[in-house]
Amino acid sequence: MKKILFALALIGIISCKKSNSNSNGTQPEPKPIVLHKVGDSFGGGIIIRVISETGEHGTIVSPQDQTTSGCQWAVVGKSGKPDVVGANGALINTNKILAFYGNNANIAAKIAKDYKGGGYSDWCLPMNVDLQAMYKNRNLLGSYTSQYWSCQEGADLNPSSSPYFYSMIYGNSLTGSGGAVINVRAVREY
Fold first, then answer.
1. What DSSP character marks residue 138?
2. What is the Cα 93 distance to its own chain's centre?
3. Domain total for the chain?
4. Are the CB atoms for 93 and 125 separated by under 8 Å?
5. Residue 39 included in any domain
6. CB under 8 Å to 144, separation ≥6 — which residues?
7. Cα Dmax for the chain
8. I want to staple 124 with a disulfide (CB 3.0 to 4.6 A). Which of 40, 57, 91, 105 is the partner?
9. pLDDT in tens, the chain (190 residues)
10. Does residue 25 form part of some domain?
């Protein structure tokens, strides 16, 4: 009798033991560890967009504007325009703008690129998707101005530059003259 009770108790313990396998006998996929989320202070700024499921990649915005009274996007009077129509990446587009207009010009791309917040040197103008994320998460920005330059241009036939800027009031992207005076808020990718 003791042997039967012992056997039943042992079976009960074994059957109650928690299993780490799925119903098909395989181990479950580990859940990704989220490293960063929107609103975290990281990398010299504030995370405004997370691209990967794990939070390993995304966009950081500087904690303040890089201009107080705005600047131009383009060098007025220079013919042609840089090839920044597509979503090549914010840093690639910023570098293309600087290569076209020159690294000595006091334009939005140079101001963003010269920013060294948090000791980082890879700051640049934001892409439209970054500006949309800034608008969506504007409560995290503290203070912000009404409009910011993008690193992208509209795909129009205008022979001079027609860059995008973003309205933080209405939450939309517009194209305008590269000679307009609009503010800069730098971003960097992590």
1. G
2. 14
3. 1
4. yes
5. no
6. 65, 134, 138, 168, 185
7. 101
8. 91
9. 555 544 444 444 444 444 444 455 666 666 667 688 999 999 999 999 998 888 889 999 999 999 989 999 998 888 777 877 666 689 999 999 999 998 877 899 999 999 999 999 999 999 999 999 999 999 988 888 899 999 998 866 555 568 999 999 999 999 888 899 999 999 999 9
10. no
Q: According to DSSP H, which parts of 2-125 are helical? A: 2-16, 90-101, 108-114
Residue 40 lies in a domain: no
Which domain covers residue 76, as residue numbers?
62-189
CA distance 15 to 157: 72
Residue 33 structure tokens? 């560890």
Please state, as a whole number, how many other Cβ atoms lie within 10 Å of the Cβ of residue 84.
25
Classify strands 147-153 and 163-167 as parallel, antiparallel or unpaired. Answer: antiparallel
Instruction: Tell me whether residue 114 is in a domain.
Output: yes
Stated pTM of the model: 0.78
